[in-house]
User: Fold this.
Amino acid sequence: MTTTAEDTRLTIAGKTYRSRLLVGSGKYRDLQQTREATLAAGAEIITVAIRRVNIGQDPNAPNLLDAVPPSEFTILPNTAGCYNAADAVYTLQLARELLNGHKLVKLEVLGDEKTLFPNMPETLKAAETLVRDGFDVMVYCSDDPIQAKMLEQIGCVAVMPLASLIGSGMGILNPWNLSLIIEQASVPVLVDAGVGTASDAAIAMELGCDGVLMNTAIAGARDPVLMARAMRLAVEAGRAAYLAGRIPKRFAASPSSPMAGRTT
Assistant:
């Protein structure tokens, strides 16, 4: 099998991206560090919490879009901080106005403030409304194959199961469920939440994920810009390993040198 450029690129809602690493915009020291880390990650899509970050709502405050302008990046508005479908829908309708009709959005409806686990009944309700309203919906969800399939059937353009709790850095706790979601999906599957370090990102890609979204793992690192570079390499390496195909695991040794024709 020959690997082509298309094998290494990510297509969401009809648009193709060179990078399979998506990043968040929160928790950085300042907007300059946000920009430096985003560039080091090689990310083309940057997600923005509309309820927490200024992208024009307050003309007197620093504007994130000055650091990561839409002319350079695809801005992905999200509904972080929303706990019901109505609030999530309203937030993304506001984002569409602020971003001149922008359609690509990230839906997340949270269940509680302690775990930030997705509230799936409200997520499904919001997804139906947003798709009907013409949005291209990428959706944060539980690692439940049935729920993920339901979101795809509603019309979401990507499903984004959590690897572990948001900001926990615990990595992929249930690779089996994630594999089931990937196996059945006909839309991109991206790990969202729980990545802590580069090896977590590589494992997600080796499992067959189409991409990884992260924020805390980069912004919370001792050196966010260096970690962003590490995550970029990890995603690229994990994708290449997935395409190359790993050797099967064995319970016995297998010599590296050929045995045929060996002299005694």
About this structure: The radius of gyration is 20 Å. The longest helix spans residues 224-244. The mean pLDDT is 92. DSSP finds ten helices and ten strands in the chain.
